[in-house]
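About this split. The held-out portion is used to measure sequence recovery: a designer receives only the structure tokens and must propose an amino acid at every position. Recovery is the fraction of positions where the proposal matches the reference. Here is one held-out target exactly as it appears in the evaluation file.
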């Protein structure tokens, strides 16, 4: 398998893990990834559980801004060919992927989505850094 294929496979697996974790529990990230649920440790990083990347939270935890039905996800991270944010997703409280964006090093790590009409409840954003792994944040509409 080529290196590119390996990375794609890993990304796909990491996204699946987050989606399954969200669907399976329906709970907040803080409770899903609390110390007593550390099966995601080393796979999914959150503000509450940054694990080995404790010093990297500010540049990797995605921010979620909500303005009516418009949601903007941003990761405050530099973008270079060697080190960049690869992808964002926005996931509903039911585990449905509401939107996704894959970046190149020439992009900014910002993505925008439109919520389904009448959406209420929690929202989850994921952000994947090619060096600092997979991060999950939550918000609420
Ligand atoms: Fe990074």
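Reference sequence for scoring:
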């Amino acid at each position: 398998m080529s290196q590119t294929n390996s990375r794609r496979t890993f990304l796909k697996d990491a996204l699946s893990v987050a989606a399954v974790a969200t669907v399976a529990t329906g709970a907040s990230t803080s409770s899903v990834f609390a110390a007593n649920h550390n099966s995601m440790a080393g796979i999914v990083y959150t503000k509450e559980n940054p694990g080995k990347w404790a010093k990297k939270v500010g540049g990797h935890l995605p921010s979620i801004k909500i303005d009516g039905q418009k949601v903007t996800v941003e990761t405050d991270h530099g973008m270079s060919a060697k080190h960049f944010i690869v992808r964002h997703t926005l996931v509903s409280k039911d585990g449905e992927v509401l939107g996704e964006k894959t970046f190149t090093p020439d992009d900014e790590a910002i993505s925008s989505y439109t919520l389904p009409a009448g959406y209420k409840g929690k929202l989850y954003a994921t952000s994947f850094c090619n060096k600092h792994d997979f991060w999950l944040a939550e918000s609420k509409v």
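Annotator remark: Confidence is low (pLDDT under 50) at residues 19-28, 30-37.
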